[in-house]
Amino acid sequence: MQQHTDRVAIVTGASRGIGAAIAERLATDGFTVVINYAGDAASAEKLARRIEEKGGRALTARADVADPDAVKRMFDATEAAFGGIDVLINNAGILKTVALAETSDEEFDRHFAINTKGTFNTLREAAKRMRNGGRIVNFSSTTLALNLPGYAVYNATKAAVEALTHVFAKELRGRDITVNTVAPGPIATDLFLSGKSEELVAQFAKMPPLERLGQPDDIASVVAFLVGPDAGWVNGQVLRANGGVA
Ligand code: NAP
């Protein structure tokens, strides 16, 4: 369904997991996609080639979203290559589950630097540079509604993202740009699976009434809706896509 052929989307954290599925889906829908990543260049390049083989347009952009200068350079490179930016998907994120009492200063700072400041950095750039009629999708998590032990700092970073979403949607008044957040439930990616026993993964998979783990494509579909014409009246919202877990 090629309906966005003149539109350009930056997807952060798109070398693997949910971000890679989003980049691939948006390319299928006709967007030119910028595949951002922090370290895994090989996976990002492989995805770009796959998109191009299917007739899409893609560029890879290494940038630690926590670094404002790197984010600026990514926006510069996107404008230089494609002339502008219409869509920003703030998907890059990290999770390490650990009890609050056991959380080091470094882990606390790293989570806020990537999950919260990373989102802030791209939003600030988007405010100055995104074309009118654009779409922004941030990433929170359904863990914010579950309040499970071990998620205090991660949830705090995502609560901040939701706060940014609500205010930023209003600050873009007059630009015809929507700002929404997706809050996935458990999705089978490295972020969710790493460090969990098979039993714990099975427990999570049983939690939603749909009785399965989500797949990256489940979230890519939601993002495709939010950046597409049918979601034009959805603005400043948090959409929990989680199989009904909360
Ligand atoms: P993932 O499989 O671990 O992938 C994370 C992606 O983010 C990778 O492409 C990684 O790139 C990139 N990344 C990490 N740090 C970065 C940085 N500083 N700058 C730029 N890119 C960076 O994670 P995921 O499960 O797809 O999660 C995507 C988003 O969904 C996150 O915001 C997460 O909090 C949220 N979420 C996930 C779940 C879930 O169950 N999976 C549930 C709720 C919310 P490199 O490989 O290059 O490092």
Automatic annotation (TrEMBL):
InterPro entries: KR_dom, NAD(P)-bd_dom_sf, Sc_DH/Rdtase_CS, SDR_fam. PROSITE patterns: ADH_SHORT. Residues 7-190 form the Ketoreductase domain. The keyword Oxidoreductase applies. CDD domains: THN_reductase-like_SDR_c (cd05362). It holds the Pfam family adh_short_C2. Keywords: NADP, Oxidoreductase. The keyword Metal-binding does not apply. One of its GO terms (molecular function) is oxidoreductase activity, acting on CH-OH group of donors. PANTHER family: NADPH-DEPENDENT ALDEHYDE REDUCTASE-LIKE PROTEIN, CHLOROPLASTIC-RELATED (PTHR48107), RE15974P (PTHR48107:SF7). Belongs to the short-chain dehydrogenases/reductases (SDR) family. This is 3-ketoacyl-ACP reductase. The lineage of its organism: Bacteria, Pseudomonadati, Pseudomonadota, Alphaproteobacteria, Hyphomicrobiales.
